[in-house]
């Protein structure tokens, strides 16, 4: 049996949907069965929803029973290291064979992972998992294309989005590509001891991204470069908690120091997944970005 955690989240849900699309059974860990069923996960054929808390081994008996391979995802938050290390402990006790850690790797060339709390936490969890004795694989996507959906409201309303990246490039990857890779990796196994980095197919400045959203929606879209302080004020005004804004400040500062971005498609190629270009992602979400009406 294969278990996917974080199944109500952005990637977990996409991965579980990919299993259902491929008519392959999967078990999905959720914290609240009613909420998960209401979100549509319960209607997917072949998906066995199981309730449990990754931090509390005593809640994970049913979820981990008979499981060979796990994909481990949890929220990027202050407790991520603790949550994932306790979950790894529970997997080892339950006799799980192989844990795939959903990790992260910034695409900027020379990016120092220790400068951003979440990449630092991912490195800590990776080291912990490598030391416990189960087979492991690290799946390390770069920024998700779906991050730009956060800016969809101002793009739709004003034809503009406001970030503080200057000419910095990023190589965002589509969550649907990650889901296809994760499905094939979990279904077929193997790749133990490997770290699988993934970016999207293009290194893009924010002006490039504006042009692609414009192409997809048929409407003018411009990127407005604001100061890091203004970006922080915008995040707080949008309801982002201060601690998360602090984390994004760290990430931004290091990205601005490392403005060139690499493209790494070896994982797409290894699993036979076609890399989705940004314009195709934007076309899929054209309505959210204010096009198509
Ligand atoms: N943002 C990016 O561009 C980027 C890029 C690369 C990697 N990453 C990494 O991707 C990961 C987040 O992926 P995502 O955005 O798909 O996740 P997400 O949407 O934030 O969802 C997180 C999931 O984890 C679940 N979860 C959290 N704590 C749990 C616990 N104690 N027990 C059981 N489930 C728990 C949540 O369940 P509930 O619904 O119950 O809360 C939710 O389903 C983070 O590790 C982040 O660092 C992010």
UniProtKB/TrEMBL annotation:
UniProt cross-references to InterPro entries, sorted A to Z: Ergot_Alk_Oxidoreductase (IPR051604), NAD(P)-bd_dom_sf (IPR036291), NmrA-like (IPR008030)
NmrA-like domain boundaries: 2-250
A Pfam entry, by short name: NmrA
Residue ranges of the TM segments: none
Top-level taxon: Bacteria
Gene3D superfamilies in alphabetical order: NAD(P)-binding Rossmann-like Domain (3.40.50.720), UDP-galactose 4-epimerase, domain 1 (3.90.25.10)
Protein name (Swiss-Prot/TrEMBL): SDR family oxidoreductase
């Amino acid at each position: 049996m294969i278990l996917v955690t974080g199944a109500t989240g952005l990637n977990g849900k996409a991965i579980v949907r990919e299993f259902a699309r491929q008519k392959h059974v999967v078990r999905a860990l959720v914290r609240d069965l009613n909420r998960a069923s209401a979100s549509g996960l319960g209607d997917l054929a072949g998906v066995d929803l199981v309730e449990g808390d990754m931090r509390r081994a005593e809640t994970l008996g049913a979820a981990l029973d008979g499981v060979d391979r796990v994909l481990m995802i949890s929220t990027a938050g202050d407790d991520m290291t603790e949550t994932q290390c306790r979950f790894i402990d529970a997997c080892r006790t339950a006799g799980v064979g192989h844990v795939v850690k959903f990790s992260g790797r910034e695409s900027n060339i020379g990016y120092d992972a220790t400068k951003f709390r979440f990449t630092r936490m991912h490195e800590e969890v990776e080291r912990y998992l490598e030391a416990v004795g189960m087979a492991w694989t690290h799946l390390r996507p770069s920024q998700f294309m779906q991050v730009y959906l956060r800016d969809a409201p101002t793009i739709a309303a004003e034809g503009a989005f406001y970030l503080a990246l200057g000419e910095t490039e990023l190589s965002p990857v589509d969550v649907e590509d990650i889901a296809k890779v994760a499905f094939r990796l979990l279904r077929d196994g193997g790749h133990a001891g490997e770290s699988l980095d993934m970016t999207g197919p293009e290194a893009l400045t924010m002006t490039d991204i504006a042009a692609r959203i414009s192409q997809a929606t048929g409407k003018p879209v411009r990127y407005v470069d604001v100061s890091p302080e203004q970006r922080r004020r915008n995040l707080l005004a949008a309801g982002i908690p201060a601690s998360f804004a602090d984390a994004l400040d760290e990430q931004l500062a290091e990205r601005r120091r490392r403005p060139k971005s690499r493209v790494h498609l070896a994982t797409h190629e290894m699993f036979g997944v076609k890399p989705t270009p940004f314009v195709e992602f934007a076309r899929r979400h054209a309505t959210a970005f204010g096009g198509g009406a």
